[in-house]
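Suppose a colleague, Dr. K., hands you the sequence of a protein chain of 81 amino acids and asks what its three-dimensional shape might be. Before reaching for any lab equipment, you can write down a predicted structure in token form. Begin with the sequence itself:
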Amino acid sequence: MLVIRRRAGEAIVLPDGIEIHVLDISGSRVKLGVVAPAQIPVLRKEAVEARQQNLAAAASPLPDTLSAWAQAYREEMAARR
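The predicted structure, expressed as tokens, is then:
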């Protein structure tokens, strides 16, 4: 990890036209501004992690109890026909 000290009003420049500006510093919080081309998404890390967790949960098989309930429901619906 590269560690760079910056003050409010200063910036760093990354490849592909990405700039990160330090807008404000107050206490333990830093306000950053990111300038990037429209085709490069800029996302908060916690949003990316939440999306990954949601995708993993959606892809996981049903728990046994839910699977058993679903089977019983299918059987009951078939019996009604």
